[in-house]
Amino acid sequence: MKTRKRSIQFFVFFMTLLWSASAALGATSAPSNVNAAYGQSTSVTIHYTLSSPLASPVTSTQGTFIFNDAIIGYVHTPITTTFQASEVLTIPQSIVERVFRKGGNTFLYRRSFAGTFLDPANVIIRIVPGSAAAFSVRRIELYFDNVRKKNEEMVPRNFKGLKACADVYYNGSGFLNGYWKVDDRIIGQVNRFVPAGGKITLATPRIPDLPTFEPGYHIVKFVVTSPEMPFEVPEIVYWVKGTEAPAKKTLALVKPRDGMDIPPDSLFEWGKMEKASLYLISFIQADDKKIRFSALTRKNTYRIPPTVLTEYLAPGKKYLWSVKGYDTGNNVIAESALQSIYLKPPSSP
Amino acid sequence: MKICGFVLCAVLFLLLPGNVTARQETPPEAATAWVVSSSPGPDEEVIAKTSPIQVVLAGPPAPQTLVVVLDGMDITQLVKTTETGFTYQPVFVLPPGSHTLNISGTDATGNLLQASIPFKTRHTASFEEATVSADMTGIYATTLRKDSSDGTTPYNAVTVEGTVQGKLREGINELSFEGYPVYVEQDKPLQTGSVEKGLDLRSFLIRGEHRGDTFQGKAEFGDVNVGETPFTVQGLLRRGTKLNLGYGNGTLSFFSVRSQAIYGIRRTLGMTHDQDNQIIGGSAGFSLPGIRTEIKATYLTGEDSSDLAYGISGIENGLRTGDVSSLRITSQIIPTILAVDFEAAYSRYDFDDADEFDEVSDTAWRVDFSGTVKQYTYDLKYEYIGRDFESIAVQGGTKDREGIYFMGNAMFPRHSLSVLASAFRDNVDRLSLMPRTINIPLFLDYNYTRFAEIPMGISFQHSILKTSDEPSGFASMETVTDAVTGKIAYIRPKWNTGLTTSYSYIDDRSGLDLDTSAANYTLTFTLAPREEWSISIVPNLVQQKNEDTGVRTDTYTTTVDLRSQPFRDLIYWDLGGSYSVSEATDDSVDTEITGINTRLACSLRRFFPADLNPAVALRGNYQRIKDKVADTKTDDLTLFLVFELQTKFGL
Asked: What is the predicted ipTM?
């Protein structure tokens, strides 16, 4: 009887020990609750922590999506840890749709780690509209947008103004952290709050713009560091040619000064450019912005001939004028801003 | 499909009535007696792109009085006077068509002398305009040193890249093409991506166009840009075919493109119909000029087989299929002051045609009022997008939303002000299974432009997001975000600098209270003391703080960009560099990344024919990554000796 009593005591002690051990070796997840977007895929980072560090690692071979006690999907990414681990979990649209169409709004994601004594880690997933979902990137679309939207671009060397854009589609709202990378070199950081809206367009920095000094092809990526990405970031390619982009400088208009009333025989003068072999001066009607008259000259001055004045220009009207400088290859190497003048009617003799 | 495309181009180009009849002979206008002869003669048609002009005058004008104007451009300073008149060699290509040469001067007694010579040019006997241009750049790189053993840095690599463009035009018919052939070869595998070894045509576009007064047609084949309406398709860059027709006030369009982007033609030309990856659609529209209104109906249908299973098994992975139709009416009710844009659309979409669920259908509509009154512009829009509305050509777009948006802008001589305000909500069907979210973002931007050299501005952003009607078990959410940004610059001819700072705070008013703040400081400095020297330095600091835990993460980045010619047109030295440090106060992050690309080149142009542009260059890439948390460090220096050759050709 005494032996039996001792046996029962030992059994109770053993079971208590076993229960304590199993309770101690449970796994927890953080966050334990996740909002998934209806009609979209949502990605979240799940951190797992075992209740105490282990001497040898344990493995979870797969995760499962569970709805109404039935498994509706498997994630075959193994996780091995002795204490803490994490995974970027994508909750696909099809899983969300399946739950929703069966009248549910909540389901589970479960990770079971190997070992008899480990409790699974559960993440409760709630289906919400996209703007209330966990902040996550759904899709990134890259393109060049210097002249017109293009998937790929070929530009001359030292081309100015090449710009890559990223349309980022996302759920929820939060801080988007990432960087633009060209050939493994960071060329600009992006750290900004993005409001609930589902889409934002980002562009590469204006200063400095995309590097175009090395002929050959270059790969542009927009790498998102937060929130964590469930997919490999896309890339676009631009090709730099050996031809040199003509460096367009600003031509300074010297006289007449902007907005002045001038007699028709006034001298027009602008700054001289060292490499310019030819200048084109244009007179534009202020109201319809059409070029009324122009002249080619090798000097940095020009005077409107009286015979031309009456035929192409009307004294008493307002005009805009500008000058372009060309090199010997007829490339535009300099351009002025537009300035206005008012041509006074010729004075009566 | 490809053959059809070419046939269609040829049909458009050859069969449609051209402007051949435009070469009608008009009786030559009697030239003024002052002009004895000229080449080209009055109303003569010459075949040339830069036809030399020669004029023989009956008598020379008085000194300094000759004025020669070609098509409204004074060319007097460029003509060469001869004993009997003058000659002119056009500097630029004369566009094909009609030209007028006006000559004026005074005789010795001060009498006005004038003459006008009309003439025509065409590029070839067969085509009014015929141009073709090509350029090619060849690069051979051999590695002098490499530290990395990533398996992709080659010892020897060859890259050839080029552009081919051409145009043929006769009257109102035009055929043009452009293509980008490349050749890539190296003794190591290429990095993963769209560039592949071998010869390829990265992208191409063939376009046939007819521009008649009553009938217009345009056919495009290759890498086309498809855009119809916001609810159907906009800015879709894909390989395929596009056809636009216009007759009187009516328009018709048709397009057939691949669902997924295609680069090059090595794997597929992409011009055939792929039943699992094709988007087909079209539109029909007509305008009513009397009431300044345009009406357009659009329909498209398609399939997409791209994998969205994310490696998850147990779910089907069939095709995404769908179609969408839309009716759009735009009208200038009061020109420039009030324009209305209305669109209603209906979509059917199945995110997986292999699962047990059928497709879903839904509607979307919007009405947009916009206009300009003096210096003020405005845009007021109401939009409703159903819960299951989705266009197969705009996957992942906005849905399940209803709201009102306002944008106003005022431009004054010394100020400008922009206001953006909107309020929208989702769960438009008010389903009890989900909460409803209300979002109210406001944005204000002010710029002071009194001093052109010192532009400055400030902007504010305030955004409210909160949920309502939460089902049981769902926690309510409310966040308020405020952001302020200030910017100022100082612009001088040879240098400029600018400072942009911003601060934002997310106030999480739900139970978790996960507040976050961020500050961003960016300084830009650009110096260009000489034409052949420029340097820009951009330091940037971002500080993000989790207000709940107090942990702050600082990211400091500086980028440098140098372009220089130490010896003009002979030695080029360019450098792009970046240095980035990320640190967290809880020591969870501590990384340094340095990247430098540089090129020191010597142009050999002077030793070769004018059409060749060779150069020899030393190219270096350096990358250093140090992770103090993981206790890892990598240093990679790669040096290449590069030979470059560039040539171009044009007709």
From this structure: 0.84
